[in-house]
Every structure is written in C-alpha cells, then in structure tokens.
Amino acid sequence: MAELCGVVGIGQTEHRAARTDVSMAGLLREAAERALEDAQLTWKDIDAVVIGKAPDLFEGVMMPELFLAEALGGAMKPMLRVHTAGSVGGSTGIVAASLVQAGIHDRVLCVAWEKQSESNAMWALTISMPFSVAVVAGAGGYFAPLIRGYIRRSGAPDDTGIRVALKDRLNALKNPYAHLQIPDVTFEQIEQSPMLWDPIRYLETCPSSDGACAMVLSSERLAEQAPTRPAWVHATAMRSEPTMFAGRDQVIPRASLDNAKALYEKAGITNPRQQIDVAEIYVPFSWFEPMWMEGMLFAPTNEGWKMTYEGATAMDGDMPINPSGGVLSSNPIGASGLLRFAEAAMQVRGQAGEHQVDGARKALGHAYGGGSQYYSTWIVGSDKP
Amino acid sequence: MADEKGPVEIVQTPVELDYTYTAGQAATRFLKGVEQGKFLGQRCPVDGLVYVASRGSSPKHGVPTGPDTVEVSDKGTLISFSIVRIPSANLSVEPPFAAISVLLDGADSHLMHVLDECPLEEVRMGMRVEAVWLPKDQWTASMQNVTHFRPTGEPDAPFDSYKDHL
Ligand SMILES: [Zn+2]
Questions:
Q1: What is the number of other CB atoms lying within 10 angstroms of the CB of residue B96?
Q2: Nearest residue of A to residue B103 by CA position?
Q3: Of A7, A255, A305, B165, which is most buried by a Cβ count within 10 Å?
Q4: Is the distance from CB of A281 to CB of A340 less than 8 angstroms?
C-alpha cells in the first residue's frame, strides 16, 4: 500500500425496526452528516463517495445509488457502488480505504445501509426456483443446518448459542444506537424463546432493522490534521468462494481461513488472540460467534465454543467480541458490516462510550455474507502501522 | 401531505415481473432424468466428484462436467437439517417441517428437500432416507415428482462417512 489511510469521522443512525421519520435518502444523510460532524468537515471536503447495501431485491429499488447521489453530496463527484451480499458493509469500507491507499483520493465518504421496513428480506431470501421445491426459509433456514453441522463436529454444549446471545444482548444495553434493547434479559428468557429454525431460537436471531453507517477516510497528511485521533488502517482483506461445490466445508469455509491468514500477514500479526484487543464479528445467529472464532483463527479447530464458554469473548474477557451488541442487536443488513468496521475504529479512537474496551489499541472488524462465501475484514490501530 | 391522520410515511407499490424460464442444457438433462424417475449427475473431470444436479460446470475448478451422465441412487444420507417453524412466502411446505440436506448414494453434492413420515423429534443427522415419488402417470420434468423423503429404516450412517460434506 502506497499511502496510509486513517478513519477520521464515524457516524451511525439510531437503528430501529421502522425509521418512518426519514426516507431512505434521509436515513443515509443522517449517518453521513454525523460522520462529517465527527471529522469537523463539510460536504465540499469530500472527494468521492462509496456506497453499499445488500441486494436491490430487498427494497425493490434498483440501483438506488442513482437517486441517492444528491443526498450524499455525490453530484459531480466520483461515486461507486459495492455489491457483496451481507458482507457488503465491510467491502464498502475496504473499497473506500483502497481509493485512499492508492493515492487516488484524499478524502472518501463511505456509507452503507438497509431500510428493512421498506423491504422483505425473508421473502427475498426464500427463493423459489422453477422445477424445484422451496424449503429454505430465509437466512435462518439456510444457516441452521450449517450450525447443526458445527455442533456435531465440535461437540459444543447445546447452550453455547444462548450464552452468546445473552452476552451480546447485555452489551447492547450499553450502546444507545442498538436496535434491540431487552433490559434485564436472562439466560432462561433466551432459552425459552421459540425455536424458529431449530436449533436457532428467536432470541438467538438478529432483528430486522432500519439503519445506516458512514465513515470518512483520509490520507495520512489530512488524517494527521484531524481534530480527533484517527484510527489507522493496518490491513484489509477480502476473499470469496462459490456457494456450493462438492466437498465444500460450509461450516468453516476455506475462504474464511484464507481471508484471516491474508489479513494477519498484512498486519504483521502472528498471534491474533494476543495481539488484537477487541473484535467486532458478524454474528447474525448466536452460533456464528464460536464458528468465526475458528474461522478467524482465534481458536483451534472445534474449540471456538470454549472461548464463549470461558467468558473470553465477554467485555472483560481476554478477547472481547461485539461490545456494541453486534448484529444480534441491530441488523440493517447492508450497514451491518460497515458497523463492525466502524465499531472497531471507535474502540481504537476511544470513542465507544459505555461499551469501550479499556485500553483498546488494535481492533478487528469482520463481515461475511451470501452462503458463508464472502468475507471482508480489517484491522485498525491507535498507532500508525 | 399532512391531514388529521398525520403525514404519509410509507406507500406500498406492488410490482410483478413475469419470466419465461429456460432450464438450459444442464438442468434439462437432470430434469429429463427426473421425468423417468432417475437422478442423473455429472462428474467433475478434475477431482472425479459427482454433482447432482450438475449445473454443467464444476464451481470449484471452472471446467465443464461430463460429458457422461452418472445415475445415482434415490436413497441417501441425511447429513444435516433444520426444523423450520416460521412461515415464509414462497415456501413449498407448511411449517413446522424438517428441511433436510441429503447426500444421495453415489453423489458428492447434496440437495435440500423435506423429510416426512417421521416425527420431528426423531429427525437426526446420519439417518438413511429415500425419495418418495408421485404415481408414475403424474411424472413431469420437475423435482415436484418427489413429494418428500422418508426414513428407510436402515441403521444410521456413521458420521465419518459424511463429515466432509457438511
Ligand atoms: Zn471440480
């Protein structure tokens, strides 16, 4: 990478089931204006805009970047749309960072969103193909058999998922932007919530949210002049693989492991669990925490669940995962990956408020999407790489 | 537009798109087999693994499968499943039901279907299952010829026999 890149502004909306108080353009603008305010910049300081969301089918608005350009100060500026399914938020951040790292632009605004109240993702993900039977009920229907495969393979105790959900739901109470806030949530409450896609319970599932996230990324020279300490981008990585092929490991796919190795190599990390202070990982269903502890090489094969079980992933554990409450607490699909990236940057800027991990100096943001086939990740630090 | 009911916040605008779907060579080959009560697959020339149904190419190696077709069994092993209890538009079946991944004997790729004729609490990984076909005079070139899968009653397949297909 030729140039260093720093995160100088971060903004997000209050994530809610239905933000009927704003249009789609208004929702994005809310996040973008907050990012500009954080960076103490104005629209004219932005050289280019990168935006991302989940498939257009969700809201039924094709190429929404066209009608959103003006609201995002994108008129007469380079504007780029990113598509990588559920991982798109992460990829959007990476594309924006690469425009800075390549020396093409000095300041890039990236924005990602979903307005699920104007869409029907469950319908869009229950695909009925001609000449076939449709039995995959939404994302949960797709991922439940993979989770069962993980449980069988690892021998993880049945209540691992409940423990993840409890932790993330308690963390969400410390994050004013989080959508699902369940005061006094208990283990029993999660355990007794209805099974939607056995073994996934209702309270082990992400909500459907309206929300957006935005970041301003700057070149080294401009980031050094920023009013607030920037989060320096240490490394980014993206990998993908086909949705299905014979012999594919769908539980911990090869692309996930390759992505993790590439990321750590670029960041000079040899022991991720020790060298990374906090991580925001894409966990839309509780069981994906232990699965991605293995997929991100924080834990040896079949031992990811032990990190959850031993409390290592709690706020006060040695590897805090999702102090923001994560995707389990807010899921504006397209924004969810960028939120993971932004929350990681907030941690190393000391901006995370009540869910700040003390002394966090190096943080990881992670997103995955499609049939567990798209991965995007980054590592940011308080210090320059 | 604001009146005593407040501003309009959301408007539903249903759209409809009609497609003429052409199955293409690979799916046609598979569906013609299903019309005869057979599951036909194709082998990847690189690793020799059998795709049922083949889409005409190996996603892993990016090469055409075949040219020969391989007939596989309509029996197989249930390698994973979910009990779906939540309704959704487009589903072919009413919840609750067991959505299963089946690895047909002789195939290396799995397919998704419904398990029936089995209490939901007895569904398990490794179960041996078989396709249940419509009466022959109702067969068309569609997977709807198979109404569901059901247990065969054979002993469960050992985990090692399918663990690399999860
Ligand atoms: Zn192949």
A1: 13
A2: A246
A3: A7
A4: yes
Residue A226's pLDDT band (boundaries 50, 70, 90)? Answer: very high
A76 lies within 8 A of chain B by CB: no
Q: Which of B51, B90, B100 lies at the smallest CB-CB distance from A246?
A: B51
Domain check: are B105 and B158 in the same one? yes
Alpha-carbon distance of A250 to A255, in angstroms, equals 10
Same domain, B149 and B88: yes
Same-domain check for residues B77 and B63: no
Do B53 and B87 reside in the same domain of the chain? no
A contact test, residue of B86, B108, B111 with most A CBs within 10 A = B86
Structure confidence at residue A131 as a pLDDT band (50, 70, 90): confident
Distance from Cα B29 to the centre of ligand 1, integer Å: 19
The residue of B31, B58, B80, B144 whose CB has the most chain A CBs within 10 angstroms, and thus the best one to mutate to test that interface, is B80
SS3 letters across A268-307: CCCCHHHHCCEEECCCCECCHHHHHHHHCCCCCCCCHHHH
CB contact under 8 A, B141 and A127: no
Q: Does B124 touch chain A (CB under 8 A)?
A: no
Q: Is there a domain that residue B78 lies in?
A: yes
Domain extent listing, chain A: 5-121+207-224
Q: What is the pLDDT of residues A287-345, one digit of tens each?
A: 999 999 999 999 999 999 999 999 999 999 999 999 999 999 999 999 999 999 999 99
Q: Domain span at residue B50?
A: 23-72
> How large a percentage of chain A has pLDDT more than 70?
100
Would you state the structure tokens that stand for residue B111, as one six-digit string? Answer: 């397919």
- Which candidate from A131, A195, A248 shows the least CB-CB separation from B83? A195
Instruction: Report pLDDT digits (tens) over B48-81.
Output: 999 998 899 999 999 999 899 999 999 999 999 9
Q: Do B82 and A249 touch (CB under 8 A)?
A: no
Domain count, chain B: 2
pLDDT of residue A165: 98
Residue B59 and residue B97 in one domain: no
In the predicted model, residues of chain B with pLDDT beneath 70 are 1-3
| Residue B111 placed within a domain | yes
Contact with chain A for residue B94, Cβ under 8 A = no
Rounded to whole angstroms, the Cα distance separating B26 from B40 reads: 10
Pair B128, B67 in one domain = no
pTM for the full predicted model: 0.95
Task: Report the distance separating Cα A339 and Cα A344, nearest Å.
Answer: 8
- Predicted complex ipTM exceeds 0.95: no
Digit-coded pLDDT (tens) for A21-72? 999 999 999 999 999 999 999 999 999 999 999 998 888 888 999 999 999 9
- Residue A24's nearest CA partner among B11, B1, B97, B18 is B11
The answer on B130 and B61 residing in a single domain is no
What is the rounded distance in angstroms from the CA atom of residue A15 to the CA atom of residue A327? Answer: 11
Assess whether B56 and B105 both reside in one domain: no
CB A146 within 8 A of CB A131: no
Average pLDDT in chain A: 95
CATH number of A5-121+207-224: 3.40.47.10
Query: Chain A neighbours among B 31-50 (CB < 8 Å)?
Result: 31, 44, 47, 49-50
